[in-house]
Amino acid sequence: MFRFLIAFIITLSTSVSSVLAAEPVIQKFDIEIPKEFMVPYSGVYTKRFPQGFTLGIGSGLCYVGKAADGARVFYAISDRGPNADAPTYEESGKKIKTKMFATPQYTPSFGAVRVHDGKAVLSSLISLKNENMVPISGRPIPQGLVGSTGETPLDDSLTKLDFDSDGLDTEGIAIDRQNKHTIWICDEYGPFIAKVDSNTGRILKKYAPGKELPAIATSRQPNRGFEGIAVTPSNKVLTAIQSVCDVDGKIKKSKATFIRLLLLDPETGTVKQYAYPHNRDDYKHSRDAKIGDLHALSETQFILIERGKNADGKTRIPFYVIDIADATDISGMKTSDGKELETLHKKKALEDMGIHFVKKTKIVDIKDLGWKPGKAEGVALLPDKRTLAITSDNDFGFTYKVINPVKDDNGKTVKKITAYTVDSTGQVSYKGTPVDTKVELVPTQAASKLWLVTLPKKVDEY
């Protein structure tokens, strides 16, 4: 009897240990931003932001290594800067899409985040410069140039701003494998890939669609350009267009089954393209599927974040290990009637053409772990091959609010500021009628998040 009890206790203990071991271990941090890295602000709502905006860092992430004091060090990058939706701009009888830039001179930046002693703190910050060492901005590129999203920049008083032909909406960051003082970043405007001196922030080379990159990348949806970037051991650069491409101007009806990944070999200049199959059935619309970031595990294997809202409206953020080893290079491939592959609505139609999709294996959905932000924008893997570092950005610690909204013909309140128009005098109108509606900036006090998620087994064992 005694032996039986001992055996039972050992078995029970082993079972409990196995269950516990199957649960990820999570360390959660708010990324602390020292005062010297706050974003200066002197606009209309200065009193609401006396110290400026909290820097939004975490749009992309990569692991640097351990410091002498044991701190884990990461590079994190911001996006284009404090921005918000704004009324459509009306000029010479034309209606133009807009975006509000509260700090028009903000320069997209990257810096080192140190995780040590229970804190995650931004310890350095470097702004991006063009090849002549002139700081760039995050304002849109002029219409007619490669990278234009068709948006006109407005300030927080809804006054038209200048475009920036060097503007970047940065989203990903990775370290060069041959020179640790060089980084690679990606952008949503062009979409562009850029090679950068990490000591100065100077852009050494920018790869553009229609030149060094395939022209089809310009069919990305506005603000859905390159969202993630990774560098393989042999120094090839993989980047992901965030969502399915709008190849025919019918993106709202698109049933495209894949999102394009681009693999650049900087040594030869060659680019290959692969079809990443998003989980079409999980989304109400194909256009809703998004990619968050990439991390290279080998020459062919990568960690990829997929995110978006389910058909039922619930957010999903699954992480996958993907493999491009057997995937088909779809560069230049068209349908039998000469259309782009995104116009095909069934995976089988592509498979019948001999196309092999990127393979994907799910690791975890961090929404199931209690992740609260709607987005996960950066991922890096620690040397143990089990611990994922994951970041969100904080949208610079503010949001916008529509003041004095009107009601539509059905009596419903018009809450979307993009449903209104504004002219050169600053007058806001709704369906041609001047209104007293305004858009104001409101603090959220939100911080960028960093999680260290230690999985029960190595990522390549899933």
Automatic annotation (TrEMBL):
It holds the Pfam family Phytase-like. Residues 1-21 form the signal peptide. It comes from the Bacteria. Transmembrane segments: none annotated. Residues 69-396 form the Phytase-like domain. Keywords: Signal. PANTHER family: BLR7070 PROTEIN (PTHR37957), PHYTASE-LIKE DOMAIN-CONTAINING PROTEIN (PTHR37957:SF1). This is Phytase-like domain-containing protein. It comes from Pseudodesulfovibrio piezophilus (strain DSM 21447 / JCM 15486 / C1TLV30) (Desulfovibrio piezophilus).
